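Just curious: can you write whichever protein you like plus the matching structure tokens?

***
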Amino acid sequence: MSIESEETSRAYSAILVAMVSISFASVFIKWSGSSPFVIAFYRLVFTCALLLPFIAWSRGFSELRRLGKTDLMLIVISAVALSFHFGLWIVSLTLTLVSTSVILVTAHPMFVAGVSHFVLGERVKRIAAIGIVVAFSGVCVISVADYGEGSDTFLGDLLAFLGGLCAGIYFLSGRLARQRVSLGPYVLSVYSLSAVIMLAAAMVAGDELLVLDGRELSLFLLLAIVPTILGHTMFNYALKKVPAHIVSTSVLGEPVGASILAFLLLPDETPGLWIILGGALVIGGLYIVLTRGRVQTA
């Protein structure tokens, strides 16, 4: 096996690890009693603190000092998109079911695939496009089912969907940035700037910023380690070798794990028949994309 093939295989392995890891995020957030912006802020701060020794060991700080204007622009776009993704999604979790919110927040592959194909020159196979459409049809089924549950639930769905679009922008800018910037400097820059943005949002919202409760701090630490470092960071690692629309679609694996964990660990989180049906379509489309949708860059 060539070095290129080995690196690509490791990238797909990283995607699998990330898919499992991000499934824990919604449960940890539901367990927390802190406000959405505070949760996101501490999650990112703890992540940066844990990454600092790795960055220092790999001499990533010297690369940070050499970043050009294009690199910085892509990092800023990624950080802003990640901030809106976290903010909108965490708020949505207070208004709708975990299963619904997680499925809708991962509804960005069609947007990412279109941009990848027409802008980035990463050809999307027809079978992959079919898989993405199948997955998105599942999202539509869930949205229609929840529309009849009340305005708060529908608002939660809308916020989750908008948060998903922001995640799509995050993956697209990350795909471009990772061709130019190493993993450590990139994620540290994005997470740090996003933490500052979430801090500003929490201050504007009038949230209590000082958290001393041991249980809350433990949840923030778990959010940093599992869904962020083992989740988001592994996705960013894969973006070096895997097209953005493949990574974006792989995030659709989160609803399965999150829904199972929510059913087992959270009260009143039993998904209805239509949510199960929509989720099945999402996972079916994901299977098509990941198993038959590998592409070559034009």
Observations:
- The chain has a mean pLDDT of 83.
- The first helix runs from residue 3 to 22.
- The chain has one domain: 3-292.
